[in-house]
Structures are given as C-alpha cells and as structure tokens.
Amino acid sequence: MDIKKILLSAATVTGMLTAGTVAANADTVTVKAGDTVSELASEYNTTIDAIKQQNSLQDANVIVVGQTLNIGGTSTGSTANTATATTTSTSTSSSTPAASSNTTTSTPAVSSSNTTTVASSSTTTTTTSSSSSAEDAARAWIAARESGGSYTAQNGQYYGKYQLSISYLNGDYSAANQELVANNYVISRYGSWQNAVKHWQTNGWY
Q1: pLDDT tens per residue across span 18-29
Q2: Distances (CA, A) of 76 to 2, 83, 90, 206
Q3: 155 three-class SS
Q4: What does the alpha-carbon distance between residue 17 and residue 3 come to, in Å, rounded to a whole number?
Q5: How many Cβ atoms from other residues are within 10 Å of residue 131's Cβ?
C-alpha cells in the first residue's frame, strides 16, 4: 500500500477527532459569594446563555448565594471554537466579572449579611455624632456661665474660659491648655460634660 495514502488517512481521522463534537455531562454547582455566571461559564467550559437557559434564569446578572445551578460543558462545536470562545471571554473581562462575546456583565453573588453590617455601622456613626454634639453643647453651656466664653476672664484664683484654678493651669494660660485641662478635670470628676452641667444646675458650680 502507498505510504502516502496511509499517512493521509491517519491525518484525516485525527482532524475529524479534533473538530468533532465535544460533550460533557451537566454538573450541579452551589453558588458561593462572589460567583458570577460568566466565571462559572468559563470554568465549566460553557456559555452564559447556556447556563441561563438550562436553569431558566430570568436575568443572568442575578444569582444568589446558596442557589443550585446545573451547568454542562460545551454541547456542540469543535475544540477550535471552544478555544476561541475562551479567549474572547478572557479579553472582555479585564476589570469586572464579566462574560463571553456578548459582553453581558454578571453581578457577583453576595449574602444579605453585608447590608446588615453597613446599617449597623451607620447607626453607630449617628449615635457617636449625637453624643459628641451633646457633649459640645454642655461644654459651651458651662463656659458661657463661668466666663462668657472668654479665655482671659479672671476671678481671684480662677482664670480663663472655664474658670479653672490657676494652679491647675500650671502657668500655661493658652487656649489649648485651658481646653485640655478643663476636659481632663470634667471627665475625671464627673465622667462627662453633661454630668458636669447637671451638677452646676444643682449647686451653681462644677
């Protein structure tokens, strides 16, 4: 037999196997946080549309953590086509989790706990701001009654905006030192400026 004919026949069979249909059994996948349809399509060698149709998804951008998806491999087409689809998917998903050649962007699946965390942080910030505002108001209230808010007001041994004992200021009458010493005094004695106001209202001094 002609050796050239043998080689040609072998090459033809190899080409048919390479270009033949590639089939894969469907896999059951449970969606994890951060998963997208496009990433799953790339990982399981299929397409977004195939996953969407196979699982009757209304929107390929919406999947949730814990959801079960049936995902199969490429149902028809050659290995050459598969390679082309994979390359296209890689080039179109540079910064966002996105999809195949139809450039559909998939939204990563997230759990509902994130929303709770954000709301909790917001509540904490609001509470802190309210508390800080109340303390500032109480501080200003005392300063207004002690000195009218003047850093240079003096009454005997008491000096400055908060009428502190001169010995407390240790020779430093600057506004910054008056604020610092007054705050340390109030916190150590009353726990807060609001408590200091209550004491002042009862006794006429703090």
Answers
A1: 333 333 467 888
A2: 36, 13, 21, 86
A3: strand
A4: 22
A5: 12
Cα distances (angstroms) measured from residue 42 to each of 32, 59, 85, 170, 204: 16, 18, 9, 72, 76
For 156-204, how does the pLDDT look when each residue is reduced to its tens digit (9 = 90+)? Answer: 999 999 999 999 999 999 999 999 999 999 999 999 999 999 999 999 9
Q: How far apart are CA 105 and CA 17, in angstroms?
A: 34
Amino acid found at 193: W
Torsion of CA 163, 167, 172, 176, to 10 degrees: -40
Of 139, 205, 151, the C-alpha closest to 178 is 151
Provide the 8-state DSSP code for 56.
Answer: T
Taking the CA atoms of the chain, what radius of gyration do you get in angstroms?
37
Are the C-beta atoms of 51 and 69 separated by less than 8 Å? yes
DSSP 102: T
The predicted model scores a pTM of: 0.41
Neighbours of 175 (CB within 10 A): 11
Q: Write the DSSP symbol of residue 98.
A: B
Task: Supply the DSSP symbol for 16.
Answer: H
Q: Tell me how far apart the alpha carbons of residues 184 and 172 are, in angstroms, rounded to a whole number.
A: 15
Beta bridge partners of 69: 29
62 backbone φψ class: left, alpha, beta (φ>0; ψ -120 to 50): beta
